[in-house]
Amino acid sequence: MTLQVDDLRVCYRTLMGEVRALDGVSFTVADGEIMGVVGESGCGKSTLGKSLVRLDNRMKHVGGTVTVDGEPLPIADDRAMNRFRFTSVSIIPQYAMSALNPTRRIGRLVADLLDAHGMSYAATRPELVRRLALVGLPETVLDSYPIELSGGMKQRVVLVLSTLRDPALLVADEVTSALDVSTQRAVAQTLVEFRDRGYVRGMLVVTHDISLVYQIADTIMVMYAGRLAEKAPSDVVVTEPLHPYTQLLIGALPEVGARFSERRLTGIPGRPPGLRNPPQGCRFRARCPLAFDKCAEQPPFVEVAENHQVACWKAGS
Ligand SMILES: Nc1ncnc2c1ncn2[C@@H]1O[C@H](COP(=O)(O)OP(=O)(O)OP(=O)(O)O)[C@@H](O)[C@H]1O
């Protein structure tokens, strides 16, 4: 088992009070598994990804445990996590490619990164060049400045760097969202290839793009308002979703070849609740077409079929 997350609770401290961004999240990612994490903006996807690798100083670990290969990660202790970052858990944060220092050549950036982790650039360079070639980048990119590379090239550089130490888990947060469609597909395929080659064992692909994650993920986990709504193999989530929220998310996707003069695109009416003072019971209740009395109680996240978990009183009934 690569990753096990149990009852993870994380909040942000703000002047207005605590935002409970993750509220009792439990799941596992198996060896070799790519898991897509989807949901509307603000549901806690990025917080989940970040909290497994680096809590920023506004985030507070409220409770719950994370283990990788059975070893607990000290996620609440930034310094203790240094031993695990990059080697055991690695992250490509949102907007990483735009964050590359524009005044440093790529090779220099890599040398700085390796130095910070006590590794020699000279000794690592042959493997680095091999992996760059694998993603279609020539050795000469090491002499380039970030501004000289396209978005897709920068994203591939970031992917190679974040997996150089073959981490058990890679969190890829919106790695394709600023790219054109064909580059998106190429970068997504690279994620799969890195998993297939064993450069990374398990992956959390955080995205709002269900169609893209459907093509590469083994499993999709749907989040709503800081909790898990549904988790199942990708094709099950897309073709037979059980949670009303997942059904509406999938129903809001445009169909290939659809004529929009005949079928209008619809979103999900309403907005997710604020997480400073979230409602009791099922958090989707106010927007749910199937809501009934029982939804005033929080539904447990339970297995309703093999590898298929849902948090809804109506699912499976
Ligand atoms: N630095 C912060 N301070 C306070 N609240 C925050 C902060 N970052 C995120 N939040 C809140 O935490 C909740 C979860 O946010 P998060 O960014 O994890 O969601 P997300 O699903 O990744 O959204 P997006 O797709 O827009 O990135 C939201 O209610 C958000 O407003």
What features would you describe in this structure?
This is Peptide/nickel transport system ATP-binding protein. Keywords: ATP-binding, Nucleotide-binding, Transport. Pfam families: ABC_tran, oligo_HPY. InterPro entries: AAA+_ATPase (IPR003593), ABC_transporter-like_ATP-bd (IPR003439), ABC_transporter-like_CS (IPR017871), Oligopep_ABC_C (IPR013563), P-loop_NTPase (IPR027417). With 317 residues, the chain is of the alpha/beta class. It has a single domain, classed as Rossmann fold (3-Layer(aba) Sandwich). It is built from 9 helices and 12 strands. The chain has helices at 45-51, 78-81, 106-116, 121-134, 151-162, 181-196, 210-216, 234-239, 244-251, and strands at residues 3-14, 17-29, 34-38, 59-68, 71-72, 89-92, 169-173, 202-206, 219-224, 227-233, 302-305, 308-310. The strands form 2 sheets. The chain has an 8-stranded mixed beta sheet with strand order 6-7-8-3-9-10-12-11, with helices on both faces. A 4-stranded antiparallel beta sheet has the order 2-1-4-5, with helices on one face. Helix 5 runs parallel beside helix 6. The two termini are 31 Å apart. The model has no long low-confidence stretch (mean pLDDT 91). The chain binds adenosine-5'-triphosphate. Adenosine-5'-triphosphate binds at residues 12, 14, 19, 21, 39, 41-47, 58, 208, 275. Adenosine-5'-triphosphate is lined by residues 12, 14, 19, 21, 39, 41-47, 58, 208, 275.
Helix-strand blueprint:
Layout lengths: L2 E12 L2 E13 L4 E5 L6 H7 L7 E10 L2 E2 L5 H4 L7 E4 L13 H11 L4 H14 L16 H12 L6 E5 L7 H16 L5 E5 L3 H7 L2 E6 L2 E7 H6 L4 H8 L50 E4 L2 E3 L7
Helix pairs in contact: 5-6
The chain binds adenosine-5'-triphosphate.
Protein name: Peptide/nickel transport system ATP-binding protein
GO molecular function: ATP binding; ATP hydrolysis activity
InterPro entries: AAA+_ATPase, ABC_transporter-like_ATP-bd, ABC_transporter-like_CS, Oligopep_ABC_C, P-loop_NTPase
